[in-house]
């Protein structure tokens, strides 16, 4: 009897999926998680696409695979070549994984404002990491321009250009959007997430708009210091930047080529202050047991606002980009939170999670 009970229990966890073809084959098909506390509070179904469960730990695994395979199809890189990219972190990590799996070298230029955890992980994956001063895109020393120049000087190398390479957007038209549609059985009313390259937001929006005949609403979520909110709200008449944010890899000072073809599909925009982001991050840890990075917490805060705007009975989906372990030395540090004047934004009963000095 014991053996039969053990067999029955184990069978509940067995799926029909076959083994994947290595790291590359494991990218995508992530779970869609109900955020129980927020769903119960709002009367909506608030769902998060658990992209931190990709093999490289973030949504950017999808873009990394598509931009590399696009370069291969176009004959831009040959075996043993070098992939070069400018990235705030997660695309670089995805690229480093894909390069290891495919036998390419990897060079990553990134702003020197990024977390040490990201830099260390890139180095452990064998990437040549080159932190450079964080300057605006129109400055020739911006990390993206430095990456492009580096690739141009090397033999058998390609700059994957994640911000304006629409293979990034295509990844989400072909994978993320269809997965969300299938996982909700087509019962989705709204989608929201932040933009960096805008590949995830634009590609997913494009698929969901097309497959639903325009029914699914799309709201851009934006941190302080980004122009997307003002651009959407003014229908392209304003690009107001002001301020800065604790989030990494999201927010934008221009309309990327990944976003440009689909910007007219965006129904509205939500500006999420850092205080709301950090409060949601700690709330999700406490109430849901989900350990998320700031960009993910911003996305959930936006989904929460979208649910309240659209009203009970709607299903809202967002992106859980990555986990907090890539940012823990900041997000759970009392000293760092005090330097950003965010300790006061965290409710008293949640301050027990501030465990680092």
Short account of what is shown:
The protein is α/β, with parallel strands linked by helices and 357 residues long.
Descriptive notes:
With 357 residues, this protein is of the alpha/beta class. It folds into two domains: 22-55 and 166-353, Rossmann fold; 60-159, 3-Layer(aba) Sandwich (Rossmann fold). The chain is built from 14 helices and ten strands. It has helices at 2-11, 22-25, 36-42, 60-73, 90-102, 116-124, 143-153, 167-183, 199-211, 228-233, 274-288, 294-310, 328-331, 334-339, and strands at residues 32-34, 45-50, 82-86, 105-111, 128-132, 157-159, 190-194, 217-222, 268-271, 315-320. A six-stranded mixed sheet has the order 1-2-10-7-8-9, with helices on both faces. Helix 9 links the parallel strand 7 (190-194) and strand 8 (217-222). The radius of gyration is 20 Å and the shape is globular. This is Cysteine synthase 1.
Helix/sheet category: alpha/beta
Distance separating the two termini: 52 Å
Strand content: 5-15%
Nearest-angstrom radius of gyration? 20 Å
The main sheet orders its strands as 1-2-10-7-8-9
Stretches where pLDDT is under 50 for at least 5 consecutive residues are 1-13
Q: What general outline do the C-alpha atoms trace?
A: globular
Portion in helices: 40-55%
